[in-house]
Design brief:
Blueprint: H1 3-7, E1 13-16, H2 25-34, E2 40-41, E3 45-46, H3 47-51, H4 56-60, E4 72-77, H5 81-93, E5 98-103, H6 108-112, H7 123-136, E6 141-146, H8 157-163, E7 169-173, H9 190-200, E8 205-209, H10 215-224, E9 230-233, H11 236-239, H12 253-271, H13 286-289, H14 296-303, H15 309-321
Parallel strand pairs: 1-9, 2-4, 3-4, 4-5, 5-6, 6-7, 7-8, 8-9
Helix pairs in contact: 2-12, 5-7
Length: about 325
């Protein structure tokens, strides 16, 4: 059985969305501690960089994971089928449960390079990329994409094309590239997307992404639309790092601060390894933990001035001791 077939025993299964400079191994371990999803994805990795000797060290850090994070899917992006072939061959040796192709990222640099959501406008190349990976490894192949590029009216043609590529799983973020995250996700299209999948590729697992806050909301959506196989949560984790817990609970500020300290520990562990992550990107996580309690905004402002994890710990200790 492939990972996607195994996951359907938990239908709906839950996944943490791959997010650039967010869902690295340190943060995935934080989510493991808070409340585990059923499957993880790596941050997306550029196959061109991975295949270039000078760039491999930099981009390969995105593939780092701990055994406790299994099952984990490697997500990759690019526009050169040959580079995907070379990359997939290596990924197959690294123990990933599957390979996911990013065909939905709206980032301008990614689109200019012909990857991400640019592939929505180049369906022939998208098919060539999928075929190239299939020919080079035995891992199940999945795609994460959006409804279309510019118009919501594109939603039928593009997913239809992907469903005809014999994918193990298709994740649909319910917005177009142009919409970014500026409009509500188009949940109203879920019944039609399920119908399309059932007609064209009933064996392909369907995962829905977009404006799903937590496991409870995902379960409600899946109950309403039983054709959904999985739920992917992205930005919801910023509002609630415990979003995957089976039963929603109130979490105290002490629990949140403890989780932040755990994140600092995991960050430092990675810094001592070859990855050596930079400190400043860590600051984007502070709002996850330091939020919705008296004095949170002032504490967060102080933390933003820190230059390393030692200073963050000192600020937290001082704040706690004053309470």
């Amino acid at each position: 059985m492939t990972i996607w077939e195994e996951l359907t025993s938990k239908k709906p299964f839950f996944a943490l969305a791959p997010m650039e400079d967010v869902t690295d191994t340190a943060f995935r371990q934080v989510i493991l501690r808070a409340a585990r999803p059923d499957v993880f994805f790596t941050e997306f990795m550029n196959v061109n960089g991975f295949c270039h000797p000078a760039g491999r060290t930099n981009v390969a850090r995105r593939l780092k994971y701990q055994p406790s994070e299994q099952p984990i899917i490697a997500q990759v992006w690019g526009s050169d089928p040959e580079k995907f072939t070379e990359t997939a061959t290596e990924l197959a040796k690294m123990g990933f449960a599957g390979i996911d192709i990013n065909m939905g990222c709206p980032d301008k640099a990614v689109v200019r390079a012909g990857g991400g959501s640019a592939l929505i406008k180049n369906p022939a190349l998208a098919a060539d990329i999928i075929a190239a990976i299939k020919a080079s490894c035995s891992q199940p192949i999945s795609v994460k994409t959006r409804l279309g590029y510019s118009s919501i009216d594109e939603w039928q043609a593009w997913p239809s094309h992907l469903l005809q590529q014999d994918l193990a799983c298709l994740t649909v973020h319910l917005r177009t590239k142009k919409e970014m995250s500026k409009v509500p996700a188009h949940h109203e299209l879920i019944p039609e997307i399920i119908k399309l999948r059932d007609e064209l590729a009933p064996e392909t697992k369907l995962v829905i992404n977009g404006d799903i806050a937590d496991r409870a909301a995902g379960n409600e959506l899946a109950h309403k639309h039983p054709g959904i196989d999985g739920i992917m949560i992205g930005r919801g984790v910023f509002a609630n790092p415990f979003c995957f817990e089976q039963t929603p609970q109130h979490h105290s500020r002490e629990e949140l601060i403890d989780l932040l300290v755990y994140h600092l520990d995991k960050f430092d562990e990675e810094k001592c390894r070859a990855a050596s992550p930079k400190f400043d990107p860590l600051k984007r996580f502070f709002k996850i933990y330091i939020n919705n309690f008296p004095g949170a905004s002032d504490l967060r402002a102080k933390l933003m001035q820190a230059k390393n994890t030692t200073e963050v710990r000192d600020i937290l200790d001082t704040w706690i001791n004053q309470k």
